[in-house]
Amino acid sequence: MAKITELKNKDLLGMKELSREEIELICETAETLKEILERPIKTVPYLRGKTACFLFFEPSTRTLNSFSLAAKRLSCDIVSVSASSSSALKGETLLDTAKNIEAMKTNFVVVRHSVPGSAHLLARQLSSSVINAGDGTHEHPTQALLDILTIKEHFGDLERLKILIVGDIEHSRVARSNIWAMTKLGAEVSLCGPPTLIPYSIAQIGVKVYYDLKEAVKDKDIIYILRLQKERQEKGLFPSIREYINLYCITPEVLKYAKPDARIMHPGPVNRGIELTPEIADSSKSLILGQVLNGVAIRMAIFYLLK
Amino acid sequence: MEGKRIIEEEEFQELLESLTTKIIKANRDVNRVILIGIKRRGAPLAKRVALQMRDRGKDVLVGSIDINLYRDDLTTIDKKPMVYGTDIPFDINDEVVILIDDVLYTGRTLRAALTEFADLGRPKKIEYACLIDRGHRELPVCANFIGKILETKQKEIVEVRVKELDGEDYVMIVPHKHGKNN
């Protein structure tokens, strides 16, 4: 098969829509662009005169900073709108806000919103390239891409790699995007968490589900720990945080059941002592900080590749 | 692609050797030079010139540069170029740098390479060598070292093929299709 050099769509909405070849192209491009981050002058003129608008209607530190750093490294101008300071408070709809921003001649719209499908809605209405930076519990494609890049750097490729995703799958857009991405690249993905936080029909898409953590970590190459999203918990999905810690916190004790060379990943922000213990987050098994650096490279690749 | 092959392997080698000789001669008083090939086909050529220079006792470092992020025609070309990456794993400050490319045509690639170099450091001197100078400059630049000057029509395309990427060394002229060379 001829190697592709371009993405099919004008937007990046989710991992579901990307082909395996497109995922490989994005990772290769990111790997190449990473060199720029090591230069004395860490900026190239590629997107000079272009503008990216960031519409963030949910809190974010890592993703917002990572996107804006990526844009700046390519000389792209940025404007930023956050929910608390925008006309959204005055009742303007998302679409109206975006259309007004686009009237200012933007090329990229990066959107984070609590409603699943909001990026898709904008993509259909705007001529700018829309990048989904997280839509509710649906998808967070750039997180999955940076995770894939991190795994590729460490393991070479994902074919037949055994990956366990632990935690609140139900509310996790990171899990959804990663399940799509990892299975497309040939990894064997399994899930572990409280039964109430694992979607009922998820086994149908070809992932194995465990409820017992010690059994789940066995033979896994990667243990991908999700953040317990306290802000998305409706009452009563699990009895208490303390019980969650007892059953699902990754501790040195739990890791005794895993492969000695298993690696730990986490999308951040880390709730230390809830989903994993501090000594594991800071250990040599952890790929967490590598994930953060790769986030900038992946987002540069996305700006580079989108039309 | 029906092109006319105008330089075959033997002459190709002679042109590279003559480039090496010219570069050594002009840099007799310099302890060490840095050769930077412009991707894609300048990169293997730089490596070969570096080997020849080392064989003749000259101290050389070799790297490569990808100018695609510095092109001035990105808004007008319809296909996005692949990025291959810049690979210069050493300090270029206060060094003598020689850029090496296969074909000098409009001069826009050279302009982009010089702009990129301004972001990478401040060499003591930058020179430029090309295997083929085919004329039709659109910018006020010229080469320090030239393998061969070819008389061409503007609409023609000069294609250099190298063993490392294409399996064979030769140069051919192709009638114009769409888009420009490089």
Structural overview:
The complex is a heterodimer of chains A (307) and B (182). Chain A is 35% helix and 15% strand. By secondary structure, chain A is an alpha/beta fold. Chain A has two domains: 20-140 and 293-305, Aspartate/ornithine carbamoyltransferase (Rossmann fold, 3-Layer(aba) Sandwich), CATH 3.40.50.1370; 141-290, Aspartate/ornithine carbamoyltransferase (Rossmann fold), CATH 3.40.50. In chain A, the strands form two sheets. In chain A, strands 7-6-5-8-9 form a five-stranded parallel beta sheet. Chain A has a four-stranded parallel beta sheet with strand order 2-1-3-4, sandwiched between helices. Chain A is globular, with a radius of gyration of 19 Å. The relative contact order of chain A is 0.16. By secondary structure, chain B is an alpha/beta fold. Chain B has one domain (13-152): 3-Layer(aba) Sandwich (Rossmann fold), CATH 3.40.50.2020. Chain B contains four helices and eight strands; from the N terminus they run E-H-E-H-E-E-H-E-E-E-H-E. Chain B has helices at 9-26, 42-55, 108-120, 163-166; strands at 4-7, 32-38, 59-65, 96-104, 125-133, 145-149, 157-161, 170-174. In chain B, the strands form two sheets. In chain B, strands 3-2-4-5-6 form a five-stranded parallel beta sheet, sandwiched between helices. In chain B, helix 3 (108-120) links the parallel strand 4 (96-104) and strand 5 (125-133). The chains are: A alpha/beta (307), B alpha/beta (182). The interface between A and B is medium-sized, with 19 and 18 residues.
